[in-house]
Every structure is written in C-alpha cells, then in structure tokens.
Amino acid sequence: DTEVTQTPKHLVMGMTNKKSLKCEQHMGHRAMYWYKQKAKKPPELMFVYSYEKLSINESVPSRFSPECPNSSLLNLHLHALQPEDSALYLCASSLPLGGGEAFFGQGTRLTVV
Amino acid sequence: SQQGEEDPQALSIQEGENATMNCSYKTSINNLQWYRQNSGRGLVHLILIRSNEREKHSGRLRVTLDTSKKSSSLLITASRAADTASYFCATMGTGGFKTIFGAGTRLFVKA
After folding, report:
1. How many Cα atoms are found within 13 Å in the side-chain-facing hemisphere of A92?
2. Which helix (H) or strand (E) is B35 found in, with range?
3. Does A45 contact B98 at a Cβ distance shorter than 8 Å?
4. Which of A101, B4, B54, B76 is spaced 20 to 30 A from B20 at the CA atom?
5. Going residue by residue through chain A (113 aa), what tens digit of pLDDT does each one get?
6. Which chain B residues contact residue A41 at CB under 8 A?
7. Selection from B41, B79, B58 nearest residue A101 by Cα
8. Which residues of B touch A48 (CB under 8 A)?
C-alpha cells in the first residue's frame, strides 16, 4: 500500500467554523507533513512530524493546529480561518531522516467563505 | 521560504519533442526530487537523485545534478500529450527531512 489518503477532498467553511483535515498512511513512514498550495504556486511547507512529534513549524498562524495521534494519522485542525487561507492542503509522508521520496495525498481543496 | 527556482516558468512543445526543465537551489542538499502535478491535485514523485549522484534515468526521464552549480535538470524525451502538467523540483536539506519546492514549470504538450 503506497497511498496517502486525505479526507475530505473538498471543504467549504465559514470563518467562525471549526473543521479538521485528516491524513492517513500505512507505509510505516515516521515523517509526515502538511503543505499549503495556492493556485499556480509551489507547495509551501507548514508542519513536519517525526515519530509523532512536531519537528518543524514554519511560523504558521495558530488558527492552524496540527495533531499526530499515532504513526499512521495526521490531522490539521482549523479554526477562525480567513478567506486568504483558501488553498489546496497536501499531506505527505516519508521515511525519516532524509530517507527518500515523499508520498503525497490528493489534497483537500479548502474554501473559506 | 522556497529555495528553488525553476526555468522556464512555462514550456509549450509538440508531441514527440523533448522537454528540458531546470532547477536551481541555494543551500546544501541531501537529495533533489522531481514531482509532477496534474490540475492542482496531488503530486506524483518522478525521480530522486542524491547529492553524490550526477545523473539518473527512469524510463523517458533523465535527471542531472550539478552540486557545484547548485542546479539540476529534468529531461523528458519523446513527450506525449499526457505529460502536460506542472513539474516541480524539491530539495531536501542536509539537516533532515525538510523538503522545499521550487516554483515549478508548467509544461504543455500539444498533440
């Protein structure tokens, strides 16, 4: 199984809503990532988890709250988002410590209204 | 912050022609990877080249890496309409597993 599964595929939320994005992999990868991608731009790294611990936070606003409950799951909790947060949110996983390629999910297309 | 820059930003070619994309980066790397993305969906990993390698092949893909110039190129030979996509280089720094993407090249292959 070489898949990273993200749910939901699409999400529309109001600025006062609380929602969560979910990501799951069963490849035994111990590094997991959240990226944000705006239209016609490259993915921008948000968070990195290594062995279920937050290793990198790229100065992301606190309205984005990541969580890694176990080695297969990664969540991104969203609260009080702004319209400019609308983007494609991509989850990825890889072997840790520079072990190789990152496998990406298909992303969640988020629209904040 | 993104450290890679790609050239050209967009490339339009006829089916059967070769496509070459270039990537430059700024800091020392552990490896460099190339990804393809169709229509703003997930990224598909194409090829990984480690910092101690100079060239790698996979099917119609050929990647070169010049660490002295901090640059890489991706060559797609005998292109097909299905190759139409955005192509990104991504570098993993020597510090660990932080993968940073370049700006990308949008490739259009006309049938």
Report:
1. 31
2. strand B29-37
3. yes
4. A101
5. 669 999 999 999 999 999 999 999 999 999 999 999 999 899 999 999 999 999 888 889 999 999 999 999 999 999 999 999 999 999 999 887 656 788 999 999 999 99
6. 103-104
7. B58
8. 97-98
